[in-house]
Amino acid sequence: MAICQITNKKIWATCVVGALVLAGCGGNSVSYIAPQDQAKYATTGLDYHDIEAAAKTAVASMLQSPDVQNIKGPKVIAVSDILNDTMQHFDTQQLSQLVLQTLKDQVHGKFYVTKAIAGSGGSEDAMINRARQLRNNEEFNQETTQEKGTLRAPDLSLSGKVIQRNARVSSSKQRIDYIFILSLASIKNGLEVWSREFPISKLGSNKSVSW
Question: For the chain, percent helix, then strand, then coil, each to nearest 5?
């Protein structure tokens, strides 16, 4: 315990802050959760493991689709809009990133992702267009700038939506369904190549607030 002789208000305030810091340091401890123990600490909200599971389920379904299997690569995918229609905040780009990352890991060299254009479910790399503004800039060696017509247009568009539905199942329990809807469409003809709707359902206390 820190003992301070209070001589003025400034020293008193410093002592109080120091005591609180020491109390905090020796207080709540933090530990990692082992993968096999994840289910013990499930929450009513969407967490990283839910989004990861949704991405893996989507890719597994996609790769089992005959239409996707018949695609002759390499094809460029653009991420379109992925809407969050839930009562909580989560980054839809994380979902699209995990889907595309898993897809590219499963099938090498067949699918690429463009960062030159994207909807709300993805992100553009601003440097791609900014670097093209260097043309005719005398401060830059024009032999090192990118010529016109080099960007690859996308062949496919990935879009989706996440919906949340809550329902009371008893006086003390509620069911929370998160429905993931994902779709892959051909940009050339607008036809849907693949789509899948799948839920992640949870049961929790009515006192739990899932947002």
Answer: 35, 25, 40
* Average pLDDT score over residue span 172-187: 95
| Backbone dihedral angles phi then psi of residue 124, each to the nearest 5 degrees | -90, 150
Distance of CA 109 to the CA centre of its chain: 23
Using the predicted structure, report yes or no on whether residue 211 has a pLDDT greater than 80: no
Q: What is the DSSP letter of 55?
A: H
Residue type, 113: V
Residue 39 pLDDT: 65
In the three-class reduction of DSSP (H, G, I as helix; E, B as strand; rest coil), residue 29 is classed as: coil
pLDDT of 204 = 83
Measured CA distances, 99 to 88, 105, 113, 191 (Å): 21, 10, 11, 20
Tokens 């206390």 sit on residue: 205
CA R_g for the chain: 25
Three-class SS state of 123: coil
Give whole-number Cα distances, 139 to 134, 135, 145, 176, in Å: 9, 10, 11, 58
pLDDT of residue 37: 64
pLDDT in tens, 22-69: 444 555 688 777 766 666 667 888 989 999 999 999 999 999 999 999
Query: What is the C-alpha separation between 177 and 205, in angstroms, rounded?
Result: 14
E strand spans, 19-124 = 75-85, 111-113
Q: Identify residue 38 by its one-letter amino acid code.
A: Q
